[in-house]
Automatic annotation (TrEMBL):
It comes from Acetobacter malorum. This is Polyphosphate kinase-2-related domain-containing protein. The keyword Transmembrane does not apply. Keywords: Kinase, Transferase. Transmembrane segments: none annotated.
Length: 252
C-alpha cells in the first residue's frame, strides 16, 4: 500500500457518522495516525492531493450541476487559516470563495442567524470555504448566551428547546443545500488546551504572526471546558457526516 492510500485509509478513523456514539474526549488531539510520516512525506502527499484537487475542480466546474461547501471549525489557533492556505492553494482561485464568519453586524442581526450563511453558499460549479460557520451560533452563543439579547428573537431563549431548534435549523439548511447539489464537507480541527496556549504565545513571539494575536483569544481560553462541551453537543446532534481531525501534531 502506497503512502497516499495508507493516509486516506487512516482518515476513516476520524469520520463521525453516528452522533449518538460520538465522544470528543476519546479523540487524542496529538494523534498522528501512526503513519510514521516525516514532514517531507507530508509535503509530497499534499502535492499529490493538490494535483488531484485541480483535476476535480475542473470537472466540478465543467459539470455545472454540483458545488462544494467546505466548513472548518475549531478552537482559536486550531489551524483554520493555515489549512485553507496550504491545502487549497493549488486550486483555481477564480472558482473558490472563502468566507470568515465573525461576530454578526447590525444588518445581519436584523435577519435570522442562517441568513448570512445561505447567502455565502457556493454557486454551481464552484467551491465555498467557511472559516467558522453556522455552528458559531450553537457554540459562541451557547457559551455566551447574553449575545442572544441582540438578535431580536421572540419567545423564550437559552432553553433546551431553543437550542434543539437551532440544531434542527442547521441540519435542515445543510440537507436543503445537499438536495440542490451542494456537497457539504465539515471538519473540526482538534487541538489540546496546551497546544493552543503554545500557538497563541507564538503569535506574540514571532513578528510575522503577531498580527493574528487578539487579547480576546486569551480571554476565551477561560471558557475552554464550556466550548468543549458545546462542540461535543453540536457534533453529536449534527446527525450528518463530519470529520474530527486531530491537529495537535501539525504545525500551524
Amino acid at each position: 500500500m502506497n503512502k497516499l492510500a495508507k493516509f486516506l485509509r487512516a482518515l476513516d478513523s476520524y469520520h463521525v457518522t453516528d452522533g449518538d456514539k460520538f465522544d470528543l474526549s476519546k479523540f487524542n488531539p496529538d494523534d498522528d495516525g501512526n503513519l510514521g510520516l516525516t514532514k517531507e512525506d507530508g509535503a509530497k502527499l499534499l502535492k499529490t492531493v493538490k494535483e488531484q484537487l485541480q483535476e476535480l475542480q475542473d470537472l466540478l466546474y465543467a459539470n455545472q450541476t454540483s458545488s462544494m461547501l467546505i466548513i472548518l471549525q475549531g478552537m482559536d489557533a486550531a489551524g483554520k487559516d493555515g489549512t485553507i492556505k496550504h491545502v487549497m492553494s493549488g486550486v483555481n482561485p477564480q472558482g473558490v470563495t472563502v468566507t470568515s464568519f465573525k461576530q454578526p453586524g447590525p444588518a445581519e442581526l436584523q435577519h435570522g442567524f442562517l441568513w448570512r450563511i445561505h447567502a455565502a453558499a457556493p454557486q454551481v460549479g464552484r467551491i465555498a470555504i467557511f472559516n467558522r460557520s453556522q455552528y458559531e451560533d450553537v457554540l459562541v452563543t451557547r457559551v455566551h448566551p447574553e449575545i442572544l439579547d441582540h438578535e431580536h428573537l421572540p419567545g423564550p431563549i437559552n432553553t433546551p428547546e431553543f437550542w434543539k431548534g437551532r440544531y434542527s435549523d442547521i441540519r435542515h439548511l445543510e440537507h436543503y443545500l445537499n438536495r440542490q447539489g451542494t456537497i457539504v464537507l465539515k471538519f473540526f480541527l482538534h487541538i489540546s488546551r496546551e497546544e493552543q496556549r503554545q500557538r497563541l504565545l507564538e503569535r506574540l513571539d514571532v513578528p510575522e504572526k503577531r498580527w493574528k494575536f487578539s487579547p480576546s483569544d486569551m480571554h476565551e481560553r477561560e471558557y475552554w471546558d464550556d466550548y468543549t462541551k458545546a462542540y461535543q453537543d453540536a457534533i453529536a446532534r449534527d446527525r450528518a457526516p463530519a470529520c474530527a481531525v486531530d491537529c495537535g501534531a501539525l504545525q500551524p
